[in-house]
Design goal:
Length: 192
């Protein structure tokens, strides 16, 4: 049972700290694309070899390459735009955990699509982005290497899903629990 009441009218300094519109749009675009790509990856991997499977594999690769490009853009943007500080009454271990989770997410946003691209190169199926732009193969065609990279891609994807689940659980907990209501709102609202 809760032992104290939360003052939700409390004017907390962090409630007024907001992300920029660019950061918010990039965050939610990537969240939708990554969730969709994870689900599509798991769905398509066990499909029988039909034209539908080939089409879905292509969509998966195109969205994956889009995520890779957006990650590069987002990291570049992030280098020049410091995010608003975490609430200062968040315990230090939670601040450290939040930062570690954010950097782990960036790592997997690169590692998962790069492993997928390397896998498909090693398997001898080059990526033609959107059916228009042939991307270079940066791994030699090698059956054994392809199998290892497919496994790596799948494990990285599981790890990404686990870290993203942690991130979402922490955000939801803070939204419904002891944090001032503005904590989650700053990732939705464009207000400066
Ligand atoms: C953030 C981006 C990506 C995510 C979250 C993701 C996720 C996944 C997942 C969950 C699977 C199913 C793994 C399994 O259980 O076997 C999968 C399979 C696959 N992915 Fe990705 N993927 C991404 C990017 C890419 C990219 C960029 C490519 C290639 C250019 C790619 C190529 C493939 C292929 C070919 C498979 C099928 C593997 C097999 O046949 O076993 N993926 N992906």
């Amino acid at each position: 049972m809760r032992e104290f009441a939360v003052d939700r009218t409390h004017d907390h300094a962090d409630d007024r700290a907001h992300y920029t519109a660019t950061a918010i749009v990039l965050h939610w675009t990537m969240a939708v694309l990554i969730l969709g790509t994870l689900c599509l990856g798991w769905y398509m991997a066990d499909l029988p070899l039909t034209p539908t499977r080939v089409r879905l594999f292509n969509y998966h690769k195109w969205v994956g390459i889009t995520i890779l490009s957006l990650t590069a853009a987002r990291l570049w943007w992030r280098l020049f735009h410091k995010p608003p500080p975490l609430p200062d009454d968040l315990p230090p271990w939670q601040q450290r955990a939040a930062r570690a989770v954010h950097w782990l997410l960036y790592f997997f946003f690169f590692a998962v699509p790069l492993a997928g691209w390397a896998f498909t190169s090693a398997a001898g199926f080059p990526v033609v982005y959107l059916g228009l732009i042939p991307l270079p193969d940066w791994v030699p065609v090698d059956k054994l290497l392809a199998e290892q990279l497919a496994t790596l891609h799948a494990w990285f994807a599981y790890a990404l899903a686990a870290v993203a689940a942690l991130h979402i659980a922490a955000a939801v907990k803070h939204a419904v629990d002891e944090r001032p209501a503005g904590y989650l709102r700053r990732m939705f609202s464009f207000r400066p």
